[in-house]
Design goal:
The structure is a homotrimer. In chain A, helix 1 runs parallel beside helix 2. In chain A, strand 2, helix 1 and strand 3 form a beta-alpha-beta unit. Chain A contains eleven helices and eight strands. Chain A is 48% helix and 17% strand. By secondary structure, chain A is of the alpha/beta class. In chain A, strands 1, 2, 3, 4, 5, 6, 7 and 8 form an eight-stranded mixed β-sheet that branches. Chains in contact: A-B, A-C, B-C. The interface between A and B is large, with 43 and 34 residues.
């Protein structure tokens, strides 16, 4: 099935047979929709069947957006319902297969990465972020939902229960240094050093043997991946939450304010989440008075 | 059954229907005895049955003492023996129900919080502490006991085995910044910023939907709470330790030196624990020479 | 069975009946071979049967080497095959028994500690390291192997999956401060303060009761030690990896360059691992051109 180049949400740069860069380039904001998941599914097949490949670095071509967040305007295709190779729904299948791939994955983060995008980087083997230009977080609570793609399962192992609850329940952004201090990412680096650091690490890993890399990663996975039934529980609960009236109401409110349309709102929208309903009530009250 | 106001160890300030502050105010040092647990039990019922409530912040009205520690003079009522709603003894039941409550709990820590009080903040969903005025730790080993209210079960998940063993086996205090670096608390903040930070966070969480908050917290709990049988083992072992002659001896020694009586000793008593028995032996030896 | 003093890889300094220092002194580099494991096995028996003992500090007498790494020239005796008291092979048995001993163990790290030596310090109850003079890491991937003595099982609990994968897959050194930031060690201290800090901590712990220390450590262990079957899987996989031709090839390459022979190479060898095969290919290509 042929695909139009202009709709491809990402491109693969084969730096060497052992080291690829995958560049998200899906204007205007790298919103995560069904096409992004389809492209990741295709990539996973290529990764696992390319014997020369050792490591993939995921980065963005759009300055302030790594991957913005889950599409809240409905372009979800079948990713919530169709079942992938792991036996889990496509959305979760994509993340689970990335964690279990013999190929090493590194997220090189610049810009916004929220909700499902945070879950994408949590499914990568390592996370490095720009000190000056990172907004990482889980705003789901602010729109009446909760994380459903592994965030509630992967964060506690990385940052402990207290910080996981803060990240999830505050629905707020974390900058690079805060994310490093919490253990959310491996390391925050000055923006000018980020590319060099990740490049050197990726080329070093690319020089090692695929069999040894796969064995080591598998051993670490055995004691660190969340069980599939926990992931599925969260996913199912998330699917239900999408139908809650209070969630629908909040989602509508942020979309009306400019989500997925207005760049400056898209950049900073978690800031307003604590006043979303209150402001609206105030506005209603003002309306009635007029 | 009416209660005399003057014996209430804490008061509830209903800032909004969704956000309460609970203020420990039990002079002179907020010692944790049976009355504190009874008040927490009553609070838990109110929290779980108040549908408008989203978040509770726990703080202290006594400058240098958040909650001092477990009462070592015997005012324990039935908290070690009576069984609470969870099927666990009251002491542990209180902590377990706090972790599982649909209401979010935040510990805002100023002053001393040791032993069972550390276990109380570990049972809260998040912990923020004053950089200048925090003494958090587990002095139990220094009085011949070990933690029995969840410390040995909750710390390893938060800080890893090595740091958990240091905290527990050193029986020493940790200041705010050390506690943050270890992951013992979410964050240490300058004292002047602590109230504002926690207030903003609590009001933000209070603006979200109770159903979504409860679902998210429950998902995180599934992968981060210690199993009940581990908690019960520690509790049972702690009950036995209270009867050990060497523990009785050490407890008597710190009580004689001024614990629960002398404010300056109460503030800094873990400092002497490394010399408690040695000093006593020296004193005995000096006595014999005179 | 008499042993020649000059071949003893470590000596025990009994500071007090409750506190011992164990000093690795096995020139030139404290390479971990069968003799080191035999000495540790003997020590474990002494530790567990000396009722007065509370705490053991492990340190090195050789300035730049704590314990260098696993012997890659074959002096492994029966540590991969003979079964120890725990039912696990001697190498793993040594580490597992150290974690479960009623005696508290503290690693005081100065110099290089790589691979199996990192696994030794990970099996100690606490780890403190010199800020100026620590090179801690897992270079196994760089020689075509993977960790086999518990590194892949213990690191994820301490540092989370992402940082564990970085440590293991990058095969690079971590200095004291980086290791502290990641949670790999308890704390990094200025070299001039390290001895005093550890000495004070050890003497404090030594003043506590053995029964309480053992009970507390056991409770922490219940929720923080990796299961034996995971440890055995890693060990078995490591044994197989030793026979892989690509591993044999890489090991030969580092031994030819000076490993276990040349002090300056031994100090810094992980630096070359990213170019080990590439450089060799270049050299072969150069040879052909000549």
């Amino acid at each position: 099935m042929a695909k139009l180049t202009e709709t491809e949400p990402m491109r693969v740069v084969e730096e060497t047979p052992a080291y690829w860069r995958v560049v998200f380039d899906y204007p205007p904001f790298n919103i995560v929709d069904a096409d992004v998941f389809q492209a990741l599914q295709d990539l996973l097949v290529r990764m696992d069947t390319t014997e020369s490949l050792r490591v993939v670095v995921f980065e963005s071509a759009i300055p302030d957006f790594y991957l913005a967040h889950f599409d809240l305007t409905g372009k979800l295709g079948n990713i919530m319902t169709a079942i992938g190779a792991s036996g889990l729904p496509i959305l979760m299948d994509t993340f689970v297969r990335l964690t279990k791939s013999p190929v090493v994955s590194i997220a090189k983060i610049r810009g916004c990465a929220r909700g499902v995008s945070s879950e994408f980087v949590l499914a990568c083997d390592m996370r490095f972020a720009s000190r000056e230009n990172t907004r990482l977080g889980h705003p789901e609570l602010g729109v009446g939902l909760h994380p459903g793609g592994g965030g509630t399962e992967r964060l506690p192992h990385l940052v402990g229960r207290g910080r996981a609850l803060e990240i999830v329940l505050s629905a707020n952004d974390f900058d690079g240094d805060s994310a490093e201090r919490y253990g959310y990412i491996n390391r925050s680096l000055p923006d000018a050093e980020l590319d060099g650091f990740v490049e050197a690490l990726a080329r070093r890993i690319a020089s090692f043997d695929r069999r040894a890399l796969a064995a080591a990663k598998n051993l670490v996975n055995q004691v660190s991946l969340p069980p599939a039934d926990r992931l599925l529980d969260a996913f199912t609960s998330f699917g239900a939450a999408l139908t809650w009236p209070e969630a629908q109401h909040r989602i509508q409110a942020v979309v009306e304010r400019g989500l997925q349309r207005d760049a400056s709102f898209e950049r900073a929208w978690p800031e307003v989440l604590g006043n979303l309903v209150a402001t609206e009530k105030q506005a209603e009250s003002d309306d009635k008075q007029n």
